[in-house]
Amino acid sequence: MMLLPQEIIKQKRNGGALTEAAIAQFVRGLTDQSFSEGQTAALAMAIYLNGMSTAETVALTRAMQHSGAVMNWNDMLDGPVVDKHSTGGVGDKVSLMLAPMIAACGAYVPMIAGRGLGHTGGTIDKLEAIPGYQCQQPLDKIQQLVKQQGCVIVSQSGELAPADRRLYLIRDVTATVESIPLITASILSKKLAAGLQALTMDVKIGSGAIMKNVADASALAKSIVNTAKGAGVPTQALLTDMNQTLGATAGNALEILETLDYLTGKYRESRLHQVTLELGASMLQLGGLFNDKASAIAALEQSLTSGKAAEIFSKMVAAQGGPADFLEKPELYLAKAKVVLDIKAPIAGYLNKADTTAIGMAVVRLGGGRAHPDQVINMAVGFSDVKALGAKVAAGDLLARVHADTVEAAEHAKTEYLAALSIEPVAATIDPIIHLVID
Q1: CA distance 43 to 58
Q2: What is residue 154's three-state secondary structure?
Q3: SS3 for 151?
């Protein structure tokens, strides 16, 4: 029997469990508009307040996954189809390196990535710093490119999980974004619609993450892992540190340049390298290509030293509309800031803490993120040469460089950056890059 929307809302409002049929009806209502915005908002709030069981979250995820097209790789490929997803942070450019590295190891990566949200940078925004790079691709082209070169990084197509798009827009304006079941279904519906055979989740934790503590991050990670497994996709979650900028840069063109330096071996920041290898090893093991972490990491290292990962990245850029010589001559194509200002330590001591959200918001205020949805991003601005936590500094030592459009903007960002740091006389214990692994 078909329920009325208000009957479904009432059931969840009163703390009851929704049946698979009721959830399927709700998701159909999202796509055919038979659930109004008010009814969708009411059900989202009921879910936010009362939660969902794993079975309910699996049903919601699968219904949203099948609300549009689902990619089917059949016998097109000779290796596993795998992906990773990050909950977002500052300076997180791991996807840019990892997709070609995984492809170089024999797996296939149809990576559907997102834009920046709040203080966190977005993979798609970073790639759009490359002139000509087309993040929107039709599904048949995505499949063609994945088969040819092993990976693509594209933005979400309107064909994949359209129910999620409408639900997210409503959640965004009704204070229900933080619901763990809704976050889980939103992430997984898009990923599973890409036809994945394995998924690794990077759940960020700390001052620059959505989840600030281990308990909240673990709850989200367990929800995602259990739901994905319930939907038939082997999944592992790593809780990784976001108490400081990841790598040495934050800002779109600057992060693309750091990606190139990483792939070519010019410079690899140690924490960024470690988390990339750990996530990559998880993907390769879940995909069945390696039985142990040591051999998976060795393969990833070889993908870098051989130059194969860099070559695949270069081919991906060219195949999606970017310059064919981008890897060799990035300085010809990446935007450069008009003003570069050194940020120096005002006192001697140890760099112990950072308000990473504040640093991310400083990038947004420079123009490197969006204060409103229609804002055009300034690709050149941000921070480079970021000194990692734990460093001992003397007064006058370089802490970072700010890249800005004007001297005034650079000075303001410098003040924000210094206010976000804590330099103390005694060294503190710095959090490890990997907090926890959840299977």
Answers
A1: 17
A2: strand
A3: strand
Q: Tell the residue number behind the tokens 């108490």, with chain if given.
A: 243
Give dist(CA 368, CA 348) in Å, integer: 30
Catalytic site positions: 83-86, 123, 171, 186, 190-191
Task: Check: CB of residue 132 under 8 Å from CB of residue 315.
Answer: no
Which two three-digit tokens encode residue 157?
């197509």
For residue 364, the 8-state DSSP code is I
Decide if 87 contacts 203 (C-beta within 8 A).
yes
Lowest mean pLDDT among 15-24, 116-125, 169-178, 384-393: 116-125
pTM tops 0.70, yes or no: yes
> In this structure, are residues 344 and 397 in contact, taking their beta carbons and an 8 Å threshold?
yes
Judged on CB neighbours under 10 Å (0-12, 13-18, 19+), 426 is exposed
**pLDDT tens digit string along 130-150?**
999 999 999 999 999 999 999
Percentages (nearest 5) of helix, strand, coil residues in the chain: 45, 15, 40
Say how far apart CA 345 and CA 176 lie, in whole Å. 40
